[in-house]
Specification:
Layout (H helix, E strand, L loop, with lengths): L4 H32 L4 H6 L8 H34 L15 H30 L7 E8 L2 E10 L5 E5 L7 E5 L3 E8 L4 E5 L4 E5 L5 E6 L6 E7 L11 E7 L1 H12 L4 H7 L23
Parallel strand pairs: 1-5, 4-10
Antiparallel strand pairs: 1-2, 2-3, 5-8, 6-7, 6-9, 9-10
Helix pairs in contact: 3-4, 5-6
Length: 300
């Protein structure tokens, strides 16, 4: 008696389906291995989170890593259930399978588990947010940040020059303002605006806070020792014609160099000369001034 053509076709279809699924899984595994092969363990665990230079940034990275791992665990579990259901309950005949109206334990489980996951994520988010927003009664240094169209003024209210005025620096279209701060010390940034809403943003801090007219905002951060360097700063709030060119530079130096910088400023030196005296580049190294002509081509 000859073979049943429909049965043979069904077996071929099943074999083809298994081969297709195996190829898909193999392809995904191969692509994942290729993507991760050029990354260190630390880079992999950051899951795309940029490197920061403060303890606050490290806390945010830990929250991001934990959230990404939790999402992957849930995703793998759900994908596993999907593939298990596809394979386990694939069509085997034209007979209608047993119909189930509800399964109370399962329904309670998949209602309670998401709420549990959300509660855990909410808890750790609140902990990190509290840490990032925390301000001490007596920070090591206070910096006054004044935003205006379209530049910045930075003052050290507790450090006075020979005329009993706070020392600082102010930017112009010819000069990028350089904000000099020490590493390893708690710094409070107190922000005010002279005109419209701006936003004080140093990408390396992984944090920004709006500067609002008629209101004083503040936050604190500590730049980790060993992270000395020049970091670009920007206005992150659309504030007018030259918003994109409203840049500044955060210059992180050792505590010893910072004390020398303050002493030079108190003696009457300009920011340019004070930076040169402590062996730092006297001009901004991360951005350039902008031309005020509305028709001039801006530097790239």
């Amino acid at each position: 008696m000859g073979a049943n053509p429909s049965a043979s076709a069904e077996r071929r279809t099943r074999r083809s389906g298994r081969a297709g699924r195996f190829a898909a899984v193999t392809g995904i595994a191969g692509a994942t291995t290729l993507l991760l092969s050029g990354c260190s363990t630390e880079e992999v665990l950051r899951f795309g989170w940029p490197e920061g230079i403060t303890p606050q940034a490290e806390q945010m990275m830990d929250l991001w890593t934990g959230s990404a791992i939790a999402a992957l665990v849930v995703g793998v579990f759900v994908w596993g259930l999907i593939f298990w259901a596809v394979i386990r309950y694939r069509k085997k005949s034209d007979e209608l399978p047993t119909q189930t109206r509800f399964n109370l334990p399962i329904e309670i489980l998949y209602t309670a588990v998401p709420f549990l996951i959300i509660a855990v994520l909410f808890y750790y988010t609140a902990v990190v947010q509290t840490f990032v927003d925390k301000q001490k009664a007596n920070p090591d240094l206070t910096v006054s940040v004044v935003a205006f169209k379209w530049n910045w003024q930075f003052l050290y209210p507790e450090e006075l020059d020979q005329e009993r005025q706070p020392i600082g620096t102010v930017g112009s279209s010819e000069e990028i303002p350089v904000l000099v701060v020490p590493t390893g010390e708690r710094i409070r940034f107190v922000e005010t605006s002279n005109d419209v809403i701006h936003s004080f943003w140093v990408p390396a801090l992984l944090f920004k806070r709006d500067v609002i007219p008629g209101r004083t905002n503040s936050f604190e951060a500590t730049i980790n020792p060993g992270e000395e360097g020049a970091y670009v700063g920007r206005c992150a709030e659309l504030c007018g014609t030259y918003h994109a060119n409203m840049n500044f530079e955060l210059r992180a130096v050792t505590s010893e160099k910072f004390d020398q910088f303050i002493a030079a400023k108190k003696a009457g030196a300009s920011t340019y000369d004070a930076l040169e005296q402590i062996g730092e580049s006297p001009v901004s190294t991360t951005t350039t001034p902008f031309k005020t002509s509305r028709t001039a081509r801006q530097p790239s």
